[in-house]
# Entry
Amino acid sequence: MKPPLRMALAASSACTLLAGCSMLNTTPAIPDDWTPRGSVSALVAFAPGGGSDRSARVVAESLNDLDADFNVNVQNREGGSGAVGWATFLAEQGNGNALLVAESALNTLPLVYDVPFTYRDFTPLVMFAEDSRMVVADADAPYETCADLVEAGRDAPVRTGSSGRTGADALVTAEFERNGGQFSVVPYGSTGEVLTALMGGQIEVAPASAASVRPYLESGDFKALCTLTPERYDDPLMGGVPTALEQGLDAEVTIWRGVLAPDGISRVQRDYWVDAILDAMDSDLYRDYIEDDLLLPADLAGEEFEDYLDDYDAQMQEVFR
Amino acid sequence: MIDNLTLGFAAALTPENLLWCFVGVLLGTVIGILPGLGSATGVAILIPVTLTFEPLTALIMLAGIYHGSQFGATITAILVATPGEASSVVSTFDGYRMARAGRAGPALAISALGSFAAAFIALVALTTLAPVFADAALGFGPPEILAVMALGLCTIMVFSGRNLMMGAALGLAGILVSSVGVDVGSGTPRYTFDQVSLFGGLPYVEVMIGLFAIGELLNQLHRGMATPIRARFRDLLLTREDIRRSVPATARGTLVGFVLGCLPGAGTTLASFMAYGVEKRFSRNRDQLGTGAIEGVVAPDAATSSGSNANFIPTLVLGVPGGATTAVLLGAFLVYGIQPGPLLFEEQPTLVWGLLASFFIGNALLLLLNLPLAPVFAQLLRIRYSVLYPLIIVTSLVGAYSVKNSMLSVWIVVVFGFVGYAMKRMNLPVAPFVLGLVIGPLFETALVQTSALGEGEILPLLASSGPAVAILALALALVVGPAAVRAVRSRTRARRSPEASAGAGGGAPDAGAGPAPGGEEVLDAPRRPDD
# Structure
């Protein structure tokens, strides 16, 4: 029987070839004048079009505008509220050519789910922005303020959406529940889907970032109930929206956005990236991003970022006990 | 409307935009041809390149890639059963059969024509009535999507051939494979065996490359090297008969693709499968489907094409991507500081209408590019398989590796290559398995959301939604109806089978034969029967 033999040969040689490729991984020592070269991946654990994706693209473009010997590509690895992407990033250990653009859910996810990582498994580089949430409802909805929502939630759960059970949206619900309201949460894949569900009338209210609800507020489809910021936004449209604090609720949500590297990279590599990212943040692109997306600028680097994360994590442990 | 389109064409027809539109569709075609490198990846890679462009020019080029890749993906699916894109998997069913029978030319040509016609119709609907369709899509919440996915699962029946239980089992196996990874609702890892690399699930593209490209290749090796196909010139061209048979199939495919394309998240892959399912059920030549019928090529391609254009309705009007590639395109919008949503059409009329006009131009360019090239591509099959197969194997494995730069992807291709080979040797239909794989996660998401909306109850929500009930009724009809018809037909066929298998020649179906039980047409005689 000739064909089966031929096939067995082909198969076995293919397997040997493949096995050979996977054994080629060796780790050379990192020289002091190390610079990244070629393709650098900036991993985002969320789908394109969302806030995390947008921040990653701004970081990537700003870095590319530095005209160094590398090119940053954004890679989206969505799934499991971020678990998939971050777990994948574990495998990059020691790789100086890999960046992770992440946000607060990196703290909250491991508190809720059994995942193989915590924020300590990565190397914090730079925190570049703080963000918060607003709560919007359909223009005809019976609620005017977030206090109304919490009040209504005392009798029967208010139906809200969430773009992830451990993301910023979940923090909003957690804050309101701490104030006494009950909510039933429908999981969606992204803020875009949550807002679509609100338009379609499937949910009653939606937490979302100021940037993503702005067009719907301008068009009059939605009305804003409150912001979860410590103070009102400094913006003609959003400035008219009171904070939850003003409405008598003890509710505030802060989420961080930052760049991290894999665990086990060398000091040289860490310093290189911290400097490069801080440089990149000097761009018009970054400034426009902060302004357009109604974010608070931040520039905590290295150890400062690490300390911030420790504090933040302690707070989150309270919320997600 | 006309004013808007005039504005759009004026914006899109500048020499610069025209050039980049052409570059986009050409690049897209190449990206589509390469297995593994799908349009989503292609667009994502090229976003940085376009950053120096005007936003409109950049979006025109990126959209050109999106359209071009659908065309390109079909070429390799038809010629060598290697789908370059998930949505062109269906093209392998009949397209590859046609190619093996020496009719690769017509298969490629009709695919280009059908795709263009479908795109044109979808675009007219898109430009005139986008807000209306977007409103309708808004009414489709989780319960309705759940019903659509249930309907999708029921089409497995259509793909199962004679052995329904086997088809259902393979469909469930597909769903089982699709459930590997972190689950949507709770984030619990399933079947990952503590392998972090499996958290993201078994990547769909790699599984496809394995099942189809490598599986077919192993099968050919087993059988002994197939001889190259030397088609006569006459066989490279479309016949009038081909076109006549394709018109209704294109219309059906376009409709199916458009409806599914409007729904956020359903995607074009499902549309192509559903269109094939519709052909299997309603086409006049449905008995030939799977043996190299032209309807089986043109309908799914039309669905993919109209679906990929209709995908822009939720993307542009609602700001919610319809599929993977429009999701990346949406990201591109944001990079340029454009926020898709209810005000996009009012605030950026030049951009939106220019982009829509460029879709017309891009599709026309693709037709001009692909129609004359169809016979040329078909000549690829003259290459000896000892040269062609190593090429396929290398591009498949390199393509798989390049998706995520991971060896795991390559192993998945190899493993599923053997799975595909085993399924072919055991004569098991691959389609139900693939369909389960595609629909599994979509079905699950809708199920989790519906259950959250109903606070743990699913049935009351489904029952209270008119569209959901209608779709479920359709699904039920799909499952029970044919079984009854088939029972009747198999009795008739038992009496007629001797003469039905001896047909030859063009197989001109008689107009008006209708779906009567006895109206089976003779097979489009394969010039090289290879089974």
